[in-house]
Amino acid sequence: MLNLELYDEESLKQIIVRSADILNIRIENEGALEIARRSRGTPRIANRLLKRVRDYAQVVEKGVITWEVAKKGLEILEIDELGLDSVDRRLILTLIENFNGGPVGVDTLSAATGEERITIEDVYEPYLLQIGFLNRTPRGRVVSKKAYDHFGIPYTEEQ
Predict the structure, then answer these.
(1) Which of 26, 54, 76 is the last residue of a domain?
(2) Short-list 103, 56, 90, 98, CA closest to 75
(3) Which of 7, 53, 121, 137 is the least crowded, having the fewest Cβ atoms under 10 Å away?
(4) DSSP-derived 3-state class of residue 2
(5) What pLDDT, in 10s, does the model give residues 63-122?
(6) Can you say whether the dihedral through the CA atoms of 37, 39, 40, 42 is positive or negative?
(7) Do residues 92 and 138 share a domain?
(8) How far is CA 128 from CA 55, 60, 82, 124, 143, in A?
């Protein structure tokens, strides 16, 4: 069985710095590290975020990706400090607000959010499971206390 592990922030930072050089954009180490932190441990995502932050840096800022520029660019993209995007938030908040945190079957979650089942299972769910925001049970998906805390939503033991 093949087990893929996420990249650590330092490795992702090196990938981002090299990609920035290829893209001919200046980047400071702190800017690269901020992008790495929000890249979900995945080089493909790191490079995608770098390109979007580069666009912001070139159009709005002075063309250099500093920590401040990276932070602002990622905020505009609605990527939070854990790398969660608007779809991740919608999935978790739908589970909390519509289904009291679960358990909810993936088909029901798909219908409630408008996301395809396969997209939820293959794209969003693995990272949410890995960071401990979502749990799979025989009865369906359940939001963890850690996710409630992240979103500042009170958690009770019944949930």
Answers:
(1) 76
(2) 56
(3) 137
(4) coil
(5) 899 999 999 999 999 999 999 999 999 999 999 999 988 899 999 999 999 999 998 888
(6) negative
(7) yes
(8) 28, 32, 10, 6, 9
